[in-house]
Each structure stands twice: as structure tokens, then as C-alpha cells.
Design brief:
- The chain is α/β, with parallel strands linked by helices.
- Helix content is 32%, strand content 23%.
- The strands form two sheets. The protein has a nine-stranded mixed β-sheet with strand order 5-4-1-8-9-10-11-12-13, sandwiched between helices. Strands 3-2-6-7 form a four-stranded mixed β-sheet.
Length: 297
């Protein structure tokens, strides 16, 4: 089983002509939520670990998970409202967000006593690692999962507007790396965080995957540096594309350690992730593909 730990929220996505008063369409979202749904859609055994509101948006989020085949037994519930993310989409399909997070349910996540038997991988990232008090609980789960031998994926997916102290966050990020098996981040994340693949690999991860939007993906390991191009499609928006990459990597790795993959193995896996992300970009909002749309990893 793969466990995805982190926030769910509602993306309010422009519907129609762009502009400050464009109608907004509510869609399920949040980086970890999207990753879990993507894993479920491509056939993985996956569970979501978070805290979700009991409001109508929260019920819709749980329905989306269950419809995708994601187990929800690790989901905590609370009466606080659901986090909202108001998206604005650029001419190239890139998305930018304004977040409404004060007093919301997902921030009050607490460390579960244990994860189920048979968990082979745990994924973390995005707002959940930036917003207290939940951030400390997710961090504790990352450290514990790593110590217990689980494969861990970290996608920082940095939202600078939610980071109250950039220097403190960067220091905290460095402290996570010894507990991370696979670090996946975008070029924008890398520029904001500072450092580079060699430095990050030396700190702990077995592999670093850098995404470059339409430019494709590159993996860095102790033995390999492998790049694949992006898949050319008509982009509606890029919402959820990076989260789909997370899911494709986790699903494609199966029980293999990154160090066991050859150059050709990495090329095939990155190509699979690029195809999956491209399908997501052809759809409005975070709508990852199903397994039958992708073929083999």
C-alpha cells in the first residue's frame, strides 16, 4: 500500500473568460489529494492520510477519493471549514493561487498512532508541511515512516505566500532530506529553495526528480542523470500535473529502490510520468488519467 499524507482543499478555478470577476468553478484539489486520486485511478493500492472537514466540501472530497478507489480509513474529520484555493490561470495554462487557510480542518491534523501493516511508501508535500500545527505532525510522520523502513517521497511544491519565514522553511526543508527516499520538485521550487541536485543527494535522498514543465523531467542519482522531453499537448491548464508526476513515479517504482534502476529503467519511468502529466494538462482542474489511458510504466 501507498499512503499519501497531506491536505485536501477546494480549488476555485476560473470558468470561462479570464478576469478578476470570472465565474469560479469548485473542484477537488490539494497536492497530496490529487496525488492520491491519481494513484487510485491508475490502479495502485493507496490510502489518504489527512484531516477533512465535515462540511459539504469535505464530503465531496471524500466522495472523490472513494470514487477513485482510495482508502479513507486514515482520514480524520473535524467541523472546521475546508481550505479554499482561488486559482488564476495564465495564457500558457500555468496556475497561481490565493489561499484561504485560517481555521481550516486540514491544519489540525494529528499524528496517527500507526499506519496499516504493509505500507511500502508514504508521500508528503505542499501546504501541509508549511502550516502549523499540522506541519509538525506531518513532519513527525515523515521521520517515523523513514525510520520504520518505508519508501518516502517529498514534493515540497512551495507556495511562498503561505510561508511566514522563508529562511526557517528552507532550514526545515534541509532537515527533512535525511528522511526522504525520492525528492521531486519543480524548477520553480528549486530556485526558491536554493541548492541543487548534488547537494540534495548528499543530504539523504536516493534520487532527485526535477520537473521543467513542457521541457520534461530529469532524474539525478549517484549513478545516473537521465532526461526525457515533455509530451506536446494542447494545454487547458497545468493544475495537478506535478501531483500526477508524483503518482506515476510511486506507481512505476513499485517495490524497486531508486538505486536499482538502470538508465533505461529511469527513461521508461520518466516517460510514463510525462505522459500522465500531459493528459492532466488537457483537462480543466486536477483531473489525472486512468490506467487504461497510459499503458505500462
Amino acid at each position: 500500500m501507498i499512503v499519501v499524507a497531506g491536505e485536501s482543499l477546494i480549488d476555485l478555478v476560473p470558468d470561462g473568460a479570464p478576469g478578476p470577476l470570472s465565474p469560479l468553478l469548485p473542484r477537488p484539489g490539494g497536492g497530496p489529494y490529487n496525488t492520491a486520486v491519481a494513484l487510485g485511478r491508475i490502479g495502485a493500492d493507496v490510502a489518504f492520510c489527512s484531516r477533512v472537514s465535515t462540511d459539504a466540501f469535505g464530503e465531496a472530497l471524500l466522495t472523490g477519493l472513494r470514487t477513485a478507489g482510495v482508502a479513507t480509513g486514515l482520514v480524520q474529520r473535524g467541523p472546521e471549514p475546508t481550505t479554499l484555493a482561488v486559482a488564476s490561470v495564465g495564457a500558457d495554462g500555468s496556475a497561481h493561487y490565493a489561499f484561504y487557510v485560517e481555521g481550516t480542518a486540514d491544519r489540525l491534523f494529528t499524528l496517527p498512532e500507526r499506519l496499516p501493516e504493509g505500507v511500502r511508501a508514504v508521500a508528503f508535500g505542499t501546504c501541509s508541511l508549511a502550516l502549523e500545527p499540522g506541519a509538525s505532525a506531518y513532519e513527525a510522520l515523515l521521520r517515523r515512516s523513514s525510520r520504520e523502513g518505508a519508501f518516502t517521497l517529498l514534493d515540497p511544491n512551495v507556495r511562498p505566500g503561505l510561508v511566514p519565514d522563508a529562511a526557517a522553511y528552507r532550514k526545515r526543508f534541509a532537515g527533512w532530506l535525511p528522511y526522504v527516499s525520492l525528492l521531486k520538485l519543480s524548477e520553480e521550487d528549486a530556485a526558491w529553495l536554493g541548492g541543487g541536485p548534488e547537494e540534495w543527494l548528499a543530504a539523504g535522498p536516493d534520487a532527485v526528480v526535477l520537473t521543467r514543465g513542457a521541457g520534461g523531467l530529469t532524474v539525478f542519482t549517484a549513478d545516473h542523470e537521465v532526461s526525457v522531453p515533455g509530451v506536446r499537448v494542447r494545454v487547458v491548464d497545468t493544475i495537478g500535473a506535478g501531483d500526477t508526476v508524483n503518482a506515476a513515479l510511486l506507481h512505476g517504482l513499485a517495490d524497486r529502490a531508486p538505486s536499482a534502476l538502470s538508465r533505461e529503467d529511469w527513461r521508461e519511468l520518466l516517460s510514463f510520468a510525462a505522459r500522465a502529466a500531459a493528459v492532466t494538462c488537457t483537462r480543466a482542474g486536477a483531473e489525472p488519467p486512468y490506467g487504461h489511458e497510459l499503458g505500462d510504466a
